[in-house]
Design a protein that fits this description.
heterodimer, B: 3 domains, six-stranded parallel sheet, four-stranded antiparallel sheet
Amino acid sequence: MYSLQAFSLLWARVAFGFYSGGLAAAVAAALLRARGRQDAVFGLARAAIATGFLFQFVGLIETTAVFPLEPAAGYRVIIGLLAFVIAAFFLMVYRIYSPRSLSLVVLPLICLLAGVATLAPASASSGPSALAKSLLHNGWIYVHVGLIFVGYAGLVVAMASGVLYLFAEHGLKSKSAAASARPLLPPLQTLDLVAYRSLLVGFPLLTAGLAIGAYWANALFGRVALSDPTVLLALLAWLMYLVLLFARWSADWRGRRSAYLTLVCFGLALAGWLANGLSRMHSLFLK
Amino acid sequence: MSLWLLGVSHRTAPIEERERLAISDAALPQALTLLRQEAAVREGLILSTCNRVEVLAASAEGARPDLLAFLARATGRQQSLRPASFYQAQDVHVVRHLFRVASSLDSLVVGEPQVLGQLKAAYAHAQAAGAVGPELEALLPRAFRAAKRVRTETAIATQPVSVSQAAVDLAHQIFGDLKGRVVLLLGAGAAGEAAARALMRQGSQRLLIMSRTLERAAALAQKFGGEALAIETLPQTGELADIVISCTGAPQPLVRRSDAAQFLARRRGRPMLFLDLAVPRDIEPSVHHLDNAFVYNVDDLDQVVQSNLNERKQEAEAGEKIIEAEVDAYLHRQRARDAAPLVRALQLQAEAMRASEWTRMRSRLGALTAEQEEAVDALTRSLMNKWMHQPMVRIKEASGAADRDAMLDAIQRLFGLEDTPKT
């Protein structure tokens, strides 16, 4: 007999399958030269992502039912949640701007996260400490994680737009790829706009998420430990996020420069994420 | 039915000759009426564009219409027609040619979209003139279908192949939607005007025009619905433009790197596209190295066009394969359709036999109830249908086979249906 936990894992695996199918379709579409076929196959990719998203949603609901306010599923659920938030953000951007080739950069990341979430075994945790439990039951930790994840999702989409912008701009500047790049890459201004608006949405949410985290870290540990690698890198990523927006507002940094800064910002955020394992505060929850 | 085609195109005749043969839209109804009066012609269509004049006719099997004589009469050129300039085709070759023309594989610029619209218009004219019957009604929609397949399944029409189109395409790559964009035209060269016109057609909102004299700029502004500005105001007003098209005869660059840097600074980094169609160049080449500035000169645009033309030629090969598949599919359908009279004749023959036998036997069976009559009727009908099933299948198969005529002959002889037409 299947347990609810097994079902949530099953849905997560189905979602991973759809995301992978979406990635395969997006790559196939990129290789096609005929515009009509390319549109149709990109449409398939989008449908696969949306279906994967729905399955992941079902899986997350069931996970919540199995582990109400309990982090026993550990890293698997957290990573799956990040993939889910990025997919949601991406689908929203896709609906507004239809930047089809953005899926070529965002989808590998979603697939990686969804895959790790699916394949990694659920940790046999001995259970969170009393300290972590009190925080979890308080509920603010979920707001902290949720806000930061949306901030990260904005950064991921901005990074993907930045990467495509650099490719498209290189094509136009070198004049060699000007003729062949068009069917695949969105216009430069669309890419710049998608990156900027994603950052605009993500920044306040990331700021709020970090502020909540800092408040509770202060309540728990009596201080915010800047020596903690996750905290330090998250703070640096946030500062770079701020510089990025400020440079755009005050110094009119758009396009290439903005794309490079976004990549640096994404790199810092990624390093902060990878440093979670070394973080005393965050390893409380991520076993 | 037989199909016939006679035509001249850019491949076979110079423009002077094509001009003489061209039939305007206004003259088409009369020409189509004349075509229908032609001996042997049952259906007809005339395609007259700047690159080709073609007459397509359907006739009874084997009856050959004199399309050259018709064209001579229709154009009033009985004396001056040079038969050597014409190409002719019959039956399957007509189908293939028509599909290629519709798909723009036979066009001067392979992949250009206009010819399909022109063929559709020619078909509409022929329909309105009552010159379209079952043969062309079956053929033309298949030609449109083939054209659609070639267009969507190959990259034949994806890339621009004229300087104006290349300019529009570049603008799309940078700005996306061109609605609301401001275009600045510097100078009054024909290439610049063509590019500006193409951009305005794409929805650019405002056209600023600067020329050596304000009067000249005003005249152009009136022609295009733009605004004339003195060229001396360029340093102050250049930043208004998203796209600058330049084709003056100025000996020195009009836009230097420092000017462009100021434009971009005042535009707060929003990109600018410079299309420099002038020789000597109007835009300093180093402007291209500025962030968010893109400079394309005549050679760059020509290179894009040439590379795209080569690409279209490669894609045309894929298009030819689609055409072959569509021609085969069309012929198969036609053969199946052609076998219909034989199938019908066989059905009628069988039904007549059944009815006659049933009438003969009925008197011998004496009084039957209504149910019994119905049962016998159903039994005989069912036996007949089962018996006829295999021959019907074989006839349909034979209609698509290579030795179609021999097989259909054999079937006709076997069932005593020699008088039934095979087509």
